[in-house]
Design a protein that fits this description.
Strand content: 15-25%
Strand order of the largest sheet: 7-5-6-4-1-2-3-8
Distance between the termini: 28 Å
Structural class: alpha/beta
Radius of gyration: 25 Å
Oligomer: single chain
Shape: elongated
Order of helices and strands: EHEHEHEHEHEHHEHHHE
Number of strands: 8
Helix content: 40-55%
Length: about 325
């Protein structure tokens, strides 16, 4: 792409019950677009769209007001709450033909919007995907920092291709978005899907900011479920783990059998206890664990084969 070309850039921000931050977020994104347009970096047709993921507060009312007040703001309302990943996908696929590239960013202003210009410059130089990557995690709590580290180690061990310290702050070119539209799975994990597409990539680094207002929509329970969905959506390693556990249990049973004979030989055992209780609890626990993993994959297959729509669009305002 010609470095002097003024591309149409869209910014997609999924939001759920974000009435406390929308006024500030919409103003900041609108001002950034206006500034980049004024400096002839992007086209005046550029925009920022907020995707309301079935919010229960005044999120949509605020979006309708902002689309009338601010030049570059659009709104997309989903018919119900479908979750962050599907809401983000709805925005990306709805507007993929209306921009040369789309930037995804959360509405809470924790991702530094000042690196958007750097993303666009790299895109104009010919890069298809630019990932926003955190420089460090010093602002995180001890628990969150170490669970995040564990998450990336697990992903690497499971052979899942993800970008370290990257969430969903990224720029994707139109051809990446067209490729993304060919993925039809219901169990979405965009952090794994987009790196798997390929094409040229680069990163920009930024410092994670404090949340402007409101509360995080991702407590530990949702974060753990999100991580597990990412692992099971992109790796069959847990199924291989079942086989490994089977061999390990067989080996352990051989050792326990040897120990049982040894205990009988020296006379240091309660008759029947060792050979009954320990194998029963041990094998029962392993079986439940393995059935649980297999059940997760069967559940995913069940969701995928039904091929139900991932979202429905209720309204759109420009």
């Amino acid at each position: 792409m010609d470095i002097n070309h003024k591309p149409i850039i869209g910014i997609v921000s999924p939001c759920y019950n974000e009435e406390l931050v929308l006024n500030e977020t919409s103003m900041q994104l609108n001002e950034i677009i206006k500034d980049l347009v004024a400096r002839n970096i992007i086209s005046e047709k550029s925009f920022a769209v907020f995707v309301d993921d079935g919010s229960k507060d005044k999120t949509w009312q605020i979006l309708e007001e902002k689309t009338g007040q601010l030049t570059h703001i659009k709104g997309l309302k989903l018919a119900g709450n479908v979750g962050h990943q599907k809401a983000l996908l709805a925005g990306l696929l709805t507007f993929k033909d209306e921009a040369d590239a789309l930037i995804s960013i959360d509405a809470d202003l924790q991702d530094d919007v000042r690196v958007i210009e750097e993303m666009i410059i790299k895109f104009k130089s010919g890069t298809d995907v630019i990932y926003g990557v955190r420089k460090e995690r010093k602002t995180d709590t001890f628990f969150k920092r170490n669970t995040a580290l564990l998450f990336y180690k697990l992903m690497k061990m499971m052979k899942v291709n993800v970008i370290h310290n990257h969430a969903d702050y990224r720029l994707c070119s139109q051809r990446v978005l067209q490729s993304l539209s060919e993925f039809n799975e219901v169990n979405l994990f965009l952090r794994g899907i987009i790196p798997s597409i390929g094409f040229s990539k680069d990163v920009v680094y930024y410092d994670r900011l404090e949340r402007f207002a409101g509360e995080s929509k991702y407590p530990f329970r949702k974060m753990a479920a999100f991580a597990w969905n990412g692992i099971t959506s992109f790796s069959n390693y847990p199924l291989k783990l079942v086989t490994i556990i089977g061999f390990a249990v067989f080996f352990a049973c051989l050792l326990m059998t040897g120990y049982a004979f040894f205990a009988i030989y020296i006379g240091d055992t309660v008759p029947g206890w060792l050979s009954t209780v320990i194998p029963m609890y041990f094998l029962g626990g392993v079986q439940l664990f393995c059935f649980g993993i297999i059940g997760e994959y069967v559940g995913k297959i069940y969701s995928e084969v039904k091929q139900r729509p991932r979202y429905f669009i209720d309204k759109r305002v420009d």
